[in-house]
Write a structure and sequence with these properties.
This protein is α+β, with helices and mostly antiparallel strands. The chain is built from four helices and eleven strands; from the N terminus they run αβαββαβαβββββββ. The protein has helices at about 5-20, 65-75, 100-115, 145-155, and strands spanning about 55-60, 85-90, 95-100, 120-135, 160-175, 180-185, 200-210, 220-235, 235-250, 255-265, 265-275. A hairpin with a 2-residue loop joins β10 and β11. The longest helix has 20 residues, at about 5-20. It is elongated.
Length: about 280
């Protein structure tokens, strides 16, 4: 090889080495700091809702109580911020603002629930309040239909005679309630101050229902009786509250002593009977 060719060859080899070294991506012994990734926008909160995702709907309620229906369908809402279900008692409507799929579920529930209620039978209660005394020979005055009850009371209690304080007949339906109040005759109570002061009484029958599991209807209710009786306390008159509360089961036609209380030397007994009206 001639000298000229050797020099040309050496120059090509050197040029190749330089070119190769220039293309090396990382020089030995040098640290490379990675480029930071572009910042991402913070994630939206789970309760965030685009306004355009909501729809509104007003439902007319024909048969049921709008407020009661509201309590049933409220869990069908999305629960997202801005979603709502409200009722209007005057117009009997439910207003819904939510996602379309939630509104569709609520609409389906209203169709199934807003239907006419099955007719409920009427119930009649007869309430008799008796005043009992332990003095023998006292005149008795009570309805003839209570004769068997009074006979049993004389055997079970210490009182010798019974007088009717008041009677009342009430009609209602299952699921409803009864309340009554009045003023008793002062002459029925020996402990009433002079001059006589009014004696107030009231009673309630709550949570009335009809059970038919055993065949014959059984009326269930919660009975509460209260009375405010005046008493002489020194030179003043103060009222004392007496009464009782008791759950009661009544079969049609039977008379039940639902409770009693004492007032000085006398007692008070409440007798209730009931029947289902066709």
């Amino acid at each position: 090889m001639s000298l000229r060719n050797r020099i040309a060859t050496a120059g090509l080899i050197g040029l190749s080495f330089v070119t190769t070294s220039t293309l090396t991506p990382m020089a030995f012994g040098q640290d490379q700091t990675p480029t930071a990734a572009p910042s991402q926008p913070p994630a939206k909160a789970p309760e965030y809702v685009e306004d355009k995702g909501f729809k509104g709907r007003v439902f007319e309620i024909k048969y049921r109580d709008p407020y009661g229906l509201l309590q049933v369908i409220r869990p069908l809402g999305s629960g997202f911020k801005g979603a709502m279900v409200s009722f209007d008692k005057q117009f009997k409507t439910l207003t819904v603002r939510d996602f379309p799929e939630n509104i569709a579920a609520i609409e389906e529930a209203i169709k199934r629930l807003d239907i006419p209620e099955a007719p409920r039978p009427g119930i009649e209660f007869s309430v008799h309040i008796l005043i009992a005394t332990s003095s023998p020979g006292e005149p008795e005055d009570f309805p003839a239909e209570l004769a068997d009850v009074v006979k049993q009371l004389k055997t079970a209690l210490k009182y010798k005679s019974y007088t009717l304080m008041t009677s009342a007949i009430h009609r209602t339906k299952e699921g409803a309630g009864i309340n009554n109040s009045g003023v008793a005759e002062s002459k029925l109570f020996a402990s009433v101050p002079t001059p006589p002061q009014p004696i107030f009484y009231d009673y309630n029958l709550d949570s009335i229902s009809i059970e038919t599991a055993s065949g014959a209807p059984v009326i269930q209710t919660d009975f509460r009786f209260g009375m405010r009786v005046p008493l002489n306390v020194g030179t003043s008159i103060q009222y004392q509250n007496v009464g009782f509360r008791s759950p009661v089961s009544l079969r049609q036609g039977e008379r039940v002593v639902v409770g009693s209380t004492t007032m000085g030397d006398k007692g008070l007994v409440v007798v209730v009977s009931t029947k289902v009206l066709k």
